[in-house]
Structure formats: C-alpha cells, structure tokens
Fold this sequence. Notes:
The protein has 390 residues and is α+β, with helices and mostly antiparallel strands. The chain folds into two domains: 13-227, Rossmann fold (3-Layer(aba) Sandwich); 231-384, CATH 2.40.50.140. The chain is 21% helix and 35% strand. The protein has helices at 51-59, 101-112, 117-127, 143-155, 173-190, 201-207, 225-230, 235-240; strands at 13-22, 25-35, 40-44, 66-71, 74-75, 86-90, 161-165, 193-198, 210-215, 218-223, 245-255, 258-263, 266-271, 281-286, 292-295, 307-320, 324-330, 336-342, 355-361, 366-369, 379-380, 383-384. Strands 6-7-8-3-9-10 form a six-stranded mixed beta sheet, sandwiched between helices. Strand 12 (258-263) and strand 13 form a beta hairpin. It is elongated and about 75 Å long.
Amino acid sequence: MGDGDESTGGSDLRLEGVTKRFGSFVAVDDLTITVPSGSFFALLGPSGCGKTTTLRMVAGLEDPTAGTIVIGDRDVTFTKPYRRPVNTVFQSYALFPHLDIFENVAFGLRRRGAQDVRTLVQDALELVELTSMARRKPAQLSGGQQQRVALARAIVNRPAVLLLDEPLGALDLKLRRQMQIELKRIQTEVGLTFVHVTHDQEEAMTMADTIAVMNGGRVDQLGNPTELYESPTTTFVANFLGQSNLLQATVTGTSGNDLLLEVHGQRLAMPTSRRRSGDRDLLVGVRPEKMRLTAADDGRRTAGDGTNVLSGGVVTDVSFAGVSTQYLVRMPWGQELVVFAQNVGAGPVTAAGKSVDLAWDAGHTFGLDGGSDVRAGVVHDEGVEPVPVA
C-alpha cells in the first residue's frame, strides 16, 4: 500500500486501451474507462472477469501489457506503487497488530514526515467514528471496527484515488449492509475518488455513482445503478444484476412508439426505445418484481392499453422470504418464470397448483439480442454461468 501524494481532493482516473495478458490468457481486454474526480465508481463482476487485475494495475501491483493509466494529468502506467497517489483498502484489513489504532492510522503520515500528525489522525478517526478506540489494539476491535481503521489509515493520506478491493467481504451480512451506508457517507464527506471492486451486486448498487459491469475482461455495460438495472443492454447484465425473465419473441410490427411482439402465440408490446437489437427475433425481458399474478382470464387486457399479459400459467412453487413472496410459474410452452410479490397484506398468498395469468406494464419490458445466451450471467451455487468471449 503506497502512501501516495497529499492532496486536497480526488482526481479523475483514466484507463486507455488497457490490456493484461498472462501467457495466452487475456485477463483484461482493451479496457477504456474514465472515473470522474470525486466519484464512487464500482468495478462489478464475477470471479475471473478481470476486475481485480484492473485494480492491481491501477495500484501498480501489475504492469499492463498494453495501454495507459492516467491519474489527474499524470501518466502512472509504469510508476512504482509507492510513488502513485493511491491507497488500497483490502478485505484482509492488514493492520499492524502491535500498534494501537492511533499509530496504525498515523503510520503512513509518520513515514512521510507529515506535519500535524495528531490532528490529521484525530480527524480521520472522527470520520470513521472510532475516536474512543484510539488506544486499543486491533485484536480488541470487531471486524467492522477493524475495517474502519483500515479505511481511516488510507484516507488520512488524502490519496488522489482510493482503491477498495472487496473491502466488506469478510463481514457478516448485517454488518456489511451497515458498512455500505457508512462507506458512501465517508466518500461523500471526504470527496475522494473511490474505485471499488466487488462481486456483490447489491453492494455496488447501494454505494456507487457509476458501475462498470465486467465480463471476460471487458465492460459489458457502464452506467448508474438505476440505468443498469432498469435498462440492461446484454443478457449478462440482465441476469447478473438481480434476476430477469427472458422470453424468445418475434417482432410483428409497430404501433405508435411501441414495438409489437409475439411470444409463443401471445401478443405483447414494448417501447421501441427499449430495443437493443435491430433483429426480428429478440429476447424480451422483464424483472420479477414488475410482474403481478392475476386469476386466469380475470380482467385480461391486451397490450394496447399499456399492459402486457401472458396467460395459461400454473404456479409450481411458492417461497416466503419476509418482505416478498417468490412464485415460480410454468407457462404453456414449458418455461418457468419468476414473480416477486411484495408482502403488503393486500391479499392471500396464491397457492401452488393455481392457474394464473401474468401482467405487467409494457413500459417495463426491454428487448435484447435474440441470439444471446439466455443463461449468461446467471448466478448459481457454483458461481456465474460461463460466457464465451469472442
């Protein structure tokens, strides 16, 4: 972990055509992204997608095979790690066990000969709400508190860019969610440029201003969390960020601003602006929480009134998950679709075996390349469905 150069705020980070090869394996493939100064940027993706290798190249722990890395107006592509204006916070914390919390945070400042160490350390500890713990040793702190110390130690140096490598991975779920909020608060207060590597979709969406979803060494899609979730442009993003129901569809025409579709003999519509492929055959998607169950043939409406309806479903499984109930619904063509119903006490739970229709606002439908792998990005027990990269 380099001490970096003292600065008053963040700097932008630019990766231009960055590639990293390990023998014949391409870990990062011609990556070009800009992280704006003072932003919270997340590199999100499954294991092996190239996100950690990208972070290590920014930190100077790996040299790129090709391309340029620029921080502010300074080319740091081959600069030694300790001469770069960056600090890194790791999942392992890497605190010095023999030093108390105050001295852990002060370590980089003292090594650099900084002035007014006491005030800087006290300000950093106040920021992470650990002032009262200053004279304790790391072993006397909880995992969440140790992570705060690691963060304070990095921030006190005021690096131009702060790199976070799966920093919350060792924490339990409840504490991880609390720390997500705290990290975002701290980033907003100090105004540094944060680059956060994670495989956790919720973590990225909770904290980041901008997310780059990585897949096979490339960025599949880059945007703010709402944009990525509501308007995915690839099946990988649609499946990796939450869940999506993807249906094989054929374009049959247009009506005003809508695209008319046929799905296994049933008619649907979607805004033409949400079409990501010019082909006649599409994969149309809808998020499970956008769908609702209705009694079979009860109040069925056509796509012409802004509502999409798929009829002939049968509930095959019901799973209560506290805030919502998950339904699996088998359609006449054999595909099982997922529906999330929020538990607001508005009606009884629909039982397994019941015949239902599925309805949703046509505006929530998105259209993707019909030739895409419908399983790309699906998370399962063994990891993420592998996707061949051309």
